[in-house]
C-alpha cells in the first residue's frame, strides 16, 4: 500500500541468491499551482493598480483572469557578441511574441530592430500581459510594435500590460511603440518600469488616441491609465510620469492632458551627460518647428536633475502627430548616436 497522495515509485534491492526486497518510495504531492512561476498572479499582476481602473474589477463571464490565452509573457535578453547586439535568451507565451530581430540600419549594422507582435487582434477584458527586456553592457537596440495596440470593449474587469526594461552600462535603447487605441467602454492600465544605468541612454515613447477616430468615436472608453517609472540600479528615482484619462470623471479636457484634442504623444530621452541636455532640447525643438502649422501644441523641457529631455504634444491630425513624433525621435537618435535614423517600414 502506498501513502495517500504518494505515487507508487518502486525500487527493488537484493541479490541473485535471495528474494528481492520491494520498497515504496513516497513522492510528494504536486504543488497547488501549475505552469511555473510565469503563470502565477504575483508575476503577471501589477503590484498596484490605480483606483480609476481597479474599480472595474470583476470576474468576466468569459475566460477568467489567468485562463489559457489570457496571460501573455515575453522575455528577451540582449548581449554584445562579436561587436553586434544579439538576442541571447528568448521566452514567449501567446499572445505575445516576436519574429527574429532585423538588422537593416546601414549606419549601425550592429543594432537590431525588434518588432513586438501579438497573435491576437487586440487586448481583451481580463488580459494580463508582461514583457521583460534586458539589454546588457554596450548593447544597442530599437524596439517597436507591429501595429497600434487596440483595446477592445469590455463588459467586465479590465486589462493590464507590464513593460520592464533593464538598460545596463553603456547601452543605447529606443522603445517606441505604435499608438494605443482605446475602444468604447475599455479599461486599461499600462505600466512601464525602467532600471537605467547612469552611463546608458534611453528613448521611450507613448502615443494615445481618443478612440476610433475614423468612426467619430472619441473618449468613449471608461479609463486609460499609464505610468512610467525610471530608476537607477541603486533604486534612486530618476523620473516618474503618470497619465490618467477618465472621461466620465472629466479628466481629459484640461491643460496638461488633451486640451480638447484627439491625440496625445510623449517622448522621453534619458542621457548620461547632463551638460548635453540644453543642446538636446534645442535639437528636439528644431525637429518640431516644421509642424507648427499643423495645429499641434507641443512643449520640450528638461527632465528632473537634467537626466534628459522630454516632449509632449497634442493634436487632432493623426498623420501630423505621427510625422512629428517620428521626426523628434529621429532627432534624438541622431543627437545621441551621431548617425541618421533609418526609415522604419510597417504595413
UniProtKB/TrEMBL annotation:
Main location class: cytoplasm
Gene Ontology CC entries for this record: cytoplasm
Annotated localization: Cytoplasm
Alphabetical UniProt keywords: Chaperone, Cytoplasm, Nickel insertion
Cross-referenced InterPro entries: UreD (IPR002669)
Ranges where the record places region Disordered: 1-20
Keyword Repressor: no
Entry keyword annotation includes Cytoplasm: yes
Single GO term (MF): nickel cation binding
Job of this protein: Required for maturation of urease via the functional incorporation of the urease nickel metallocenter.
Family: Belongs to the UreD family.
Subunit structure: UreD, UreF and UreG form a complex that acts as a GTP-hydrolysis-dependent molecular chaperone, activating the urease apoprotein by helping to assemble the nickel containing metallocenter of UreC. The UreE protein probably delivers the nickel.
PANTHER family (alphabetical): UREASE ACCESSORY PROTEIN D
Protein name: Urease accessory protein UreD
Amino acid at each position: 500500500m502506498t501513502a495517500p497522495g504518494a505515487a507508487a515509485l518502486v525500487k527493488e534491492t537484493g541479490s541473485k541468491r535471495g528474494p528481492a526486497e520491494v520498497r515504496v518510495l513516497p513522492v510528494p504531492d504536486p504543488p497547488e499551482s501549475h505552469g511555473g512561476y510565469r503563470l502565477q498572479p504575483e508575476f503577471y499582476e501589477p503590484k498596484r493598480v490605480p483606483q480609476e481602473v481597479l474599480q472595474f474589477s470583476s470576474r468576466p463571464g468569459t475566460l477568467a483572469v489567468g485562463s489559457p490565452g489570457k496571460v501573455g509573457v515575453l522575455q528577451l535578453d540582449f548581449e554584445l557578441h562579436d561587436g553586434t547586439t544579439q538576442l541571447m535568451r528568448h521566452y514567449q507565451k501567446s499572445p505575445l511574441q516576436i519574429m527574429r530581430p532585423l538588422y537593416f540600419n546601414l549606419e549601425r549594422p550592429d543594432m537590431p530592430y525588434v518588432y513586438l507582435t501579438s497573435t491576437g487582434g487586440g487586448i481583451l477584458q481580463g488580459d494580463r500581459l508582461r514583457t521583460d527586456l534586458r539589454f546588457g553592457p554596450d548593447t544597442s537596440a530599437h524596439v517597436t510594435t507591429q501595429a497600434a495596440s487596440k483595446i477592445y470593449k469590455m463588459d467586465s474587469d479590465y486589462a493590464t500590460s507590464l513593460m520592464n526594461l533593464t538598460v545596463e552600462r553603456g547601452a543605447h535603447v529606443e522603445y517606441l511603440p505604435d499608438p494605443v487605441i482605446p475602444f468604447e467602454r475599455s479599461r486599461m492600465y499600462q505600466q512601464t518600469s525602467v532600471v537605467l544605468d547612469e552611463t546608458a541612454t534611453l528613448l521611450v515613447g507613448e502615443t494615445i488616441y481618443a478612440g476610433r477616430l475614423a468612426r467619430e468615436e472619441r473618449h468613449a472608453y471608461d479609463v486609460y491609465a499609464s505610468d512610467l517609472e525610471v530608476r537607477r540600479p541603486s533604486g534612486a528615482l530618476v523620473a516618474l510620469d503618470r497619465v490618467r484619462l477618465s472621461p466620465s470623471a472629466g479628466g481629459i479636457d484640461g491643460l496638461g492632458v488633451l486640451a480638447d484634442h484627439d491625440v496625445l504623444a510623449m517622448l522621453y530621452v534619458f542621457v548620461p551627460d547632463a551638460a548635453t541636455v540644453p543642446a538636446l532640447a534645442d535639437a528636439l525643438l528644431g525637429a518640431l518647428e516644421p509642424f507648427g502649422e499643423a495645429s499641434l501644441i507641443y512643449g520640450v523641457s528638461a527632465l528632473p536633475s537634467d537626466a534628459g529631455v522630454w516632449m509632449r504634444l497634442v493634436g487632432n491630425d493623426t498623420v501630423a502627430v505621427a510625422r512629428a513624433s517620428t521626426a523628434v525621435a529621429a532627432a534624438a537618435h541622431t543627437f545621441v548616436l551621431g548617425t541618421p535614423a533609418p526609415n522604419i517600414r510597417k504595413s
